[in-house]
Amino acid sequence: METVIQGSTLETLRAGLRGTAHAPGEEGYEEASRAWNLAAYQQPALVVVAKGAADMMAAVRFAREGGLGVGVMATGHGVGAACDGGVLINTSNMRGVRVDPVARTARVEAGALWTDLIHESQVHGLAGLLGSTSYVGIVGYTMGGGFGWLGRKYGFNAASMTEADLVTADGELVRVSAEGHPELFWGLGGGGGNFGIVTSLKFDLYPIGTLYGGNLIYPVEKAKEVLDAYARWSAELPDEMSTGVAFLNVPPLPALPEPLRGKSVITLRGCYCGESPGDGEELVRPMREELGEPIMDTFGMVPYAAMDSISMDPVDPMGARQHSEMLSDLSPEAIEALVDVAGAGSGSPLIMLEIRQLGGALERTADRLSTMGKGGSKFIMNGVGPAFTPEMAEGVVAYLARVTEATRPFQTGDTYVNFMELGGASAERVKAAYAPEDLERLVALKDRYDPQNVFRFNRNIAPSKAER
Ligand SMILES: Cc1cc2nc3c(=O)[nH]c(=O)nc-3n(C[C@H](O)[C@H](O)[C@H](O)COP(=O)(O)OP(=O)(O)OC[C@H]3O[C@@H](n4cnc5c(N)ncnc54)[C@H](O)[C@@H]3O)c2cc1C
Question: Cα separation of 279 and 277, whole Å?
Fold first, then answer.
């Protein structure tokens, strides 16, 4: 979609910004539109690199006056729908974080990453509920729920949210909490950024310093044995232990440990966050004994600040395609299907096919919004493949479709907001991320706060009058 913005209106906007605005062809446009996921190419009509709430308000008003939609990007880890032809607000210059050690809370700006907060919170022995990598934006992560290796014990970060400052579709700034705008507060904690642009977010922190975590890594030929043992073991674990298994096709890069370089492996991974990290070692012992000598055993004491070492996610921008489904169980039939599509001799082009355990506090969302559908899924499966060229992307997308087909009998049909892939956030998939009664409330909120669907470049909850 081609949208041309008049020079004079653009100059008026620019004069009122502390940040910068870039139209197509202008210097800075490509850089400010580029996402971490290089496969998510966006062509906004204008990109505004915001320096604060006032810039965001100006950008939203400008978009509305021009009849344009608004998208927002902190890192570009989670572009659900490319902001083509809209006004993209880039928040990457807003990375301020402030910790209140007495109240045990953090307030972070729109573009802050978990890695920014870790430094400030750990000095007080406090920790936020980060995901598998600390290079994801905190606000975007929380808008979709947000869970990681502390999830089964502490739940989604959205459930720890206590307050947000939000620029609404009218370009107004409102403070949203359980006391002020309670219904909007409920919807914001998982509503995927559908109701406005968060300028800053406040949430609870927890006293966490050292954990017990790591990986037991085996040759992929052992996948069935590992999955069988994992299915039995994980069913009995306390909520303090969050776990997963992943098929990995490790790239042959010199930076990676020699025993793994260029190998296809299966890893059993986890993290224990109970009071005494040593108890985690006891919990892992049966797996060590049953599965025998691994290629690598990295389980041990892990400082909270080093938790990225458990998932080993890539840090630098990369082109990737991904797809996720929720599973009802890891039955022998499900395991057979997984080994068939990702095990030895499968020819899988995926870098990773991971199955993470759910349950615990991720299920007990109480009065908070769940972003994982109706509930009842025991595991979430997530496949990721490299997509540096359109041809690679095509091959990976086709393979992900094959994985989806092979595991269909074991899927619950629910989806998870944060794992909805680029271009894959269809009305049906978004609907499947919420319980029906929650979706009704979310649509009512959208009707009230964004009836024109200004905020549409996301995992979109359309207003009831919109064409679906
Ligand atoms: C390598 C990798 C690992 C991941 N691991 C996990 C994990 O362990 N657990 C998990 O839950 N998720 C995980 N995710 C998913 C991730 O949390 C989502 O993609 C999230 O949306 C990323 O947020 P971002 O701001 O970094 O990305 P962006 O692409 O910048 O933003 C994504 C979306 O978030 C919303 N958003 C961002 N900023 C704002 C704002 N200021 N106001 C309103 N809405 C906003 C918008 O809808 C935007 O389109 C992972 C993703 C990747 C690529």
Answer: 5
Query: What kind of architecture, by CATH, is found in domain 97-207?
Result: 2-Layer Sandwich (3.30)
Q: Give the whole-angstrom CA distance, residue 112 versus residue 129.
A: 14
Domain assignments of the chain as residue spans, ordered by start: 18-90, 97-207, 210-419
Class level of CATH domain 210-419: alpha beta
Predicted confidence at residue 468, as pLDDT, reads: 44
**How many angstroms separate the CA atoms of 436 and 141, rounded?**
23
> Angle, nearest 10°, between helix axes 223-234 and 278-291?
140
Please say whether the dihedral angle defined by the alpha carbons of residues 367, 371, 375 and 381, taken in this order, is positive or negative: negative
User: Quick check: CB of 72 below 6 Å from ligand 1?
Assistant: yes
How is domain 18-90 classified at the architecture level of CATH?
A: 2-Layer Sandwich (3.30)
**Cβ–Cβ contacts within 10 Å for residue 163, how many?**
18
Nearest CA to ligand 1 atom 16: 141
Q: Do domains 97-207 and 210-419 have the same CATH topology?
A: no
Atom of ligand 1 nearest to the CA of 91: 41
Q: How far, in Å, CA of 358 to CA of 382, rounded?
A: 13
Q: Is the per-residue pLDDT at 1 higher than 70? A: no
Give the pLDDT of residue 4: 63
What ipTM was reported for this prediction?
A: 0.99
**Which one of 133, 139, 141, 198 would you pick to mutate in the ligand 1 pocket, going by the greatest count of ligand atoms within 8 A of its CB?**
141
Q: Is the CB of 147 under 6 A from ligand 1?
A: yes
Which one-letter amino acid corresponds to residue 157?
Answer: N
pLDDT per position as a tens digit, 39-62: 999 999 999 999 999 999 999 999
Give the type of residue at 220: V
Distance in Å, CA 73 to ligand 1 centroid: 9
Average pLDDT, rounded, for the chain: 96
Instruction: Say how many Å lie between the first and final Cα of the chain, rounded.
Output: 19
Confidence check: pLDDT of 87 > 70:
yes
Q: From the CA of 192, give the closest atom in ligand 1.
A: 47
**Ligand 1: which of 57, 138, 143, 176 to mutate, most ligand atoms within 8 Å of CB?**
143
Q: What is the pLDDT of residues 331-388, one digit of tens each?
A: 999 999 999 999 999 999 999 999 999 999 999 877 899 999 998 999 999 999 999 9
Could you identify the atom of ligand 1 that is nearest to the CA of residue 457? 49
User: Residues 147-204: pLDDT tens digits?
Assistant: 999 999 999 999 999 999 999 999 999 999 999 999 999 999 999 799 999 999 999 9
313 Cβ inside 6 Å of ligand 1: yes
Cα 428 to chain center, whole Å? Answer: 19
Q: Specify whether the CB–CB gap between 18 and 52 falls below 8 A.
A: yes
Rounded to an integer, the average pLDDT of 298-317 is 96
33 lines ligand 1 (CB under 6 A): no
